[in-house]
Amino acid sequence: MNALDRPTLGELRERLQELAGDADSRVVVLTGSGEKAFVAGADIKYMSGLDVEEAKGWGELGHACAQLLETMPKPTIAAINGFALGGGCELALACDLRYAASSARVGQPEINLGIIPGWGGTQRLARVCGLGFAKELILTGRLVDAEEALRAGLVNGVHDPVLEKASEVAALLASKSPLALAAAKRATNHALQGDHVENLQREAEEFGGLFASEDAKEGMTAFAEKREPRFGR
After folding, report:
1. Distance, CA of 152 to CA of 156 (rounded, Å)
2. Hey, which residues does 106 pair with through a beta bridge?
3. Could you list the active site residues?
4. Which of 49, 37, 36 is nearest to 5 (CA)?
């Protein structure tokens, strides 16, 4: 069920750090092995033995993984192939795009354990789906199926097999300018936070700065020449 214990989560963070700095990796797809679960959540047996300071450290490790998915300069895609519960839902929320298999079940059931989401769920779920829907899922702990997740905007689409769809989108993104993708990701990450005027200024700076890049020259030249652009790495 791909439940996360500390060694597994530590390995995930290390791998994401490697990918974030790997210029040859243009897109990152996160999925779970097997067909039953993306991530069924954290290892409850492990969590039950944590004291306050250990729990804070556990939360920081989960936040570090989510932050890498959210802020690395390349697009990240979650292929949700089954249960995405608790920390699994939170890791998916940190990705730029999310696609679900028809069998997927998503939720933040931490309230049933006497705790709350600790890897960003209270913030990202509200930003993705709206405050009312986020509060309902977090306060009740109920799970939603793939179709409800799609209606709520929690996922971008429902597809079988989901990894095939995620790979198709990844290939499309990999054909785009990596510089423009990074700039677009930085700008849109600020859309629901901070000052609106400052965010517009940030967009203007990102937009203008790209005009000094070879990617922008290639993209506009290719358009004028009616051919597909060939963006560098």
Report:
1. 10
2. 84, 144
3. 90, 110
4. 49
Judge residue 166's burial from the number of C-beta atoms within 10 Å of its C-beta, 0-12 exposed, 13-18 middle, 19 or more buried: buried
Q: Which two tokens stand for residue 115?
A: 């705790």
Residue partners of 33: CB distance under 8 A and separation at least 6: 2
Digits of tens for pLDDT over the chain (233 positions)? Answer: 999 999 999 999 999 999 999 999 999 999 999 989 999 999 999 999 999 999 999 999 999 999 999 999 999 999 999 999 999 999 999 999 999 999 999 999 999 999 999 999 999 999 999 999 999 999 999 999 999 999 999 999 999 999 999 999 999 999 999 999 999 999 999 998 889 999 999 999 999 999 999 999 999 999 999 999 999 75
Q: Give the number of other Cβ atoms within 10 Å of residue 3's Cβ.
A: 19
Measured CA angle at 41 (ends 40, 45), to 5 deg: 110
